[in-house]
Amino acid sequence: MKLTRREVLKCAAASSALMAVGGNLSSVMAADDGEPDKWVKAVCRFCGTGCGVMIGVKNGKVVTVKGDPNNHNQGFLCLKGALMPPIVYAKERVTRPYIRKDGQLVPATWDEAMDLVVSKFKKAIKEHGPTSVAYYGSGQALTEESYLANKIWKAGLRCNNVEGNPRLCMASAVGGYYTSFGKDEPCGCYEDIDAATCFFIIGSNMSECHPILFKRVAARKQADPNVKVIVVDPRKTNTARIADEHVSFKPGTDLAILNAMAYVIIQEELDNPRFYNKYVNFMTNGKKKADFKTYMKFLEDYTPEKAEKISGVPADQIRRIAKMFAESSATMSFWTMGLNQRIRGVWANNLVTNLHLLTGHIGKPGACNFSLTGQPNACGGVRDTGSLCHLLPAGRMIKKPEHRAQLEKQWGLKPGTIAPKPGLHTIALWNAFSEGKIKAMYVLCTNPAHSLPNVNMYTEGMERKDNFMVLSEPFMDAETVKYCDVLLPPAFWCEKRGVYGCSERRYSLLMQAVEPMGECRSDVEILLDFAKRMGVDPKVIPFKNVDDVWDEWREVSSITPYNFKGMTRERQEKESGILWPCPTEDHPGTKRRYVRGEDPNIPKDYKNKYWFYGYPDGKAKLWMRPYAPAAEEPDAKYPMVLTTGRVIDHWHTGTMTMKVPELRRSFPRAYVEVNIEDAKKHGIKNGDNVLLETRRDKMVFPAKVSDVCRPGLVFVPWYDKDLMINKLTLNAFDKGSKQPEYKICAVRIKKA
Amino acid sequence: MKILQVKKKRKLLGAVLPAVGFCVVFAAATVMAATPIKHLIAPDSAADCYECHKKATPKIAQNWYESKHGVVLMKCFVCHGQPDGKGSVPWAVVPSPKKVCRKCHDPAMKRMEEKFGLKGDCYTCHPFHQNSIHHDAYKKSVTKKQ
User: Fold this and answer.
1) What is the ipTM of this complex?
2) Which residues 3-32 on chain A approach chain B with CB closer than 8 angstroms?
3) Domain A190-376: which CATH number of 3.40.980.10, 3.40.50.20, 3.40.50.1000, 3.40.228.10
4) Considering CB atoms only, which of B19, B88, B137 is closest to A12?
5) What is the pLDDT of residues A557-582, one digit of tens each?
6) pTM score, two decimals?
């Protein structure tokens, strides 16, 4: 008789199970109890990766989650996603409306709360016109919520002051895609990761901010060690663990590095003239059409040696990464806030795209310039529905009369209903609120009193008595609750139904798993009530429920290149996400845009393989963007650079992750990450208190001394409401995208 | 024939002894799972397991760090919970496949069930610290080599 190793182990396991039954309570056996009554399909509440989750429900309560095997994440979840259930039943949940009286929030009925809200909005509009009110939404709101709020404000109230926190995270990516392709959103998909042979990760700590995508990249590298990974980041994060090249540079100088890479690619004859001669226009920074020679002349300022002087990156390393990028059979770029949260965010986005246009690494499996989104529905909810002050749904612009006219026709409005002037962008909006010019603000599913840069300026404004803020927020301990005049209790994540659209243009339906807690209502229900009480024409807002909103939005998209008319609710209930465009119910969705045979916007018999239809001549734009310094460079008084970001355990302002004991105890408080050399210079040891001081404010943090930050750079995570680093950050913003430069400001440090 | 029987017995003994050994370890683990264990009280960093365990149990900590779970920062507490039992995941030295592994590996567990009839039985073929969850992520695991 021959027993295999497997049989032996099975025998052992069976014996131990028997022993357990005999006396000891086996956790394994005990844990097998509590099987959920049902599994409900949804999407993770956290980052823009948009992983599918199955919510386990027992006796009407969420008891567990598991990954959705049919969504892009193939059943996997990251540590935050796997630990979501305790958030739903946190003791801090807001379960009834509140009104502020004598400085205190006191319980109120829905009628009392909504009557007060509506009276304040009506008064403001009557006395100061429609531009005196505003909506400030979120990349975490459902698509239907954002679409509905956008329509109530722009069509119902004739007010374009519609903004949201995606302005703080994704606006530069939108600007980058618009200026390069004439259309927003990435052209490729997550599946490209499995085919790429080189990954160029710049300004992104994917490992902690988009863990499941990083897992897919790491799995690609594990399967084939010849796959190259380049990580460009002044911090040596966990993402750099799998890197063949980690490029550390002086913060803010990446524009010079990207131009130098283009220089090397051309000098080494690794460019793809067959592609760019046919599909690309070269553009000067002054928006003039130019030629390849002009581009070459522009690049002479960015030889690797010159870029080394600016960035501190050895010229040889720039040459190596440029060759890696261009010589691979398919290169995929990823970036996030490191490029977007900058006063030159749009330019930085353009310069990454340039490398793809120069080498033709685009529109093929594994070849894509892919901007990662920070929130679960910034793309689908806010960017696509046009819920920003300058946009209209499906990629249309307020400033373009033909776009307004087209939408007015679709919405059945009288011509001229939509105000022709864009509203105030986020920073301008909160400035205006602080100055008392915006009289009434509706804030939904976001925490601006924690997340705005240079936040003291705005919280002071929120304390004014002559402006009014209504906040829809599920957690009582969110910082903004301190400042709101009315607090509404929204149904949370699993208590409502609607769509999330993640980074890869994938729209997935979140089905309602459990009933809302207490008196909570879905935000769609609240907004419909608000519109009715405000007296918005019922023909403009004819919806009875969330599904009606979705059906109209599908229809509105159908005459645009976004077209997802084929994503019916019935189909969404069965499938785990579909990528737009998806014009018909039998269309499988589109993995790669601008490619004949894949993108349904391109006729099958179109003469060329690619068609960048965002511009009339069908060509993408390669921009000559020069290097320009940050808004606040270090100087003699403030000699170091402060940057902020996430840790894997926490998400955004921590209102959700702090409710999970494991996550809270993993990183209970913020800290400052200091390089070993800087720590020596200032006599700082691990755990010492360190005073950080910028031109805005100062604060003490415990130190983590390591080699993660390069010398001269300190990093602080932004989740902690007790150590709110946004009191120190800068609110200077990109002139194009209006996105603030969270990632760089000057700071001085000393042992406290 | 007799010799053959002896050989069979030896083989069986060879199989059963390690199995019994495994049982002892397994049973010990299950006992530990039922009660909170003796553990350093560190309320401020109770879930920052790696930070202490790289000194306290360096081999296990390093195994995790180099594993697939380590590369993607799937930290100890996601599967094992908290030693003081105050986490949202039940504390267990041997995490429950049906409650824990399933959160991410449900498709694989279903495949194993269909292929080998192994219901929630991960550790039989994927013993701790011998597969890519707890060892070098870039090398093929013992199981896969076989």
Assistant:
1) 0.89
2) 3, 5-13, 15-16, 19-20, 24-28, 30-32
3) 3.40.228.10
4) B19
5) 999 999 999 999 999 999 999 999 99
6) 0.92
